Amino acid sequence: MYAELTDNLLTGNKMIDGQHKELIDKINDLLKACENESPTIKATAAQMLNYLADYTEFHFGEEEKLQEEIGYPGIKEHKAKHEELRQVVADLHTMLEEQEGPTEAFVEQVNKNVIEWLYYHIQGFDRSVAEYKNLTKNENLI
Ligand SMILES: [Fe+2]
User: Fold this and answer.
1) What is the pLDDT of residue 2?
2) How far is the CA of 29 from the centre of ligand 1 (A)?
3) 90 C-alpha to center of ligand 1: Å?
4) What is residue 124's DSSP assignment?
5) Where do the structural domains in the chain lie, given as residue ranges?
6) Ligand 1 centre and the CA of 77: distance in Å?
7) CB 51 within 8 A of CB 26
8) What does the alpha-carbon distance between residue 110 and residue 116 come to, in Å, rounded to a whole number?
9) Which residues of the chain have pLDDT under 50?
10) To the nearest whole number, what is the mean pLDDT of the chain?
11) Thinking of the domain 12-141, which architecture would CATH place it in?
């Protein structure tokens, strides 16, 4: 199953939502690479995983910078959550390295530990940042 940025995953923050869209595209690129039957499937999947890892780094960096800028009080917990996904991606690298190519178990991990994790994270943690940003913005107007 591919990931999708449905309306219930929007935070209302343009930058965050735009980057989530891109992140989801990268996840789907990885899943598509895993379906490929070609002999280069392992290398292609590894490359897509690298793209996903790079974009995840960029996105988390941007989100954390935003939280610092607005003085978001939950930044420490939020950063710890980001660390979780970084670890998952590192584990996926190891898993892929150790196998002939992306197995069913690998795809299952992507679904469970990346997609489901992201959906949950966006709806709770990221939405909370977007709400806090709006709150502080409104305060400044008063
Ligand atoms: Fe986040």
Assistant:
1) 96
2) 21
3) 18
4) I
5) 12-141
6) 10
7) yes
8) 9
9) none
10) 95
11) Up-down Bundle (1.20)
Give the CA radius of gyration of the chain: 17
Taking the C-alpha atoms of residue 27 and residue 19, their distance in angstroms, rounded to an integer, is 12
Instruction: Give the Cα separation of 105 and 108 in Å (integer).
Output: 5
Cα 100 to ligand 1 centre (Å): 32
- State the distance from the centre of ligand 1 to the C-alpha of 60, rounded, in angstroms: 6
Distance 122 CA to ligand 1 centre (A): 6
Read off the tokens for 58: 């960029």
Q: Which tens digits make up the pLDDT trace of 35-61? A: 988 899 999 999 999 999 999 999 999
Query: Ligand 1 centre from 129 Cα, in Å?
Result: 8
pTM (two decimals): 0.94
Look at residues 47, 32, 27 and name the one whose alpha carbon lies nearest to residue 111.
Answer: 27
Nearest to 78 by CA among 64, 65, 59: 64
User: Measured between alpha carbons, how far apart are the two ends of the chain, in Å?
Assistant: 46
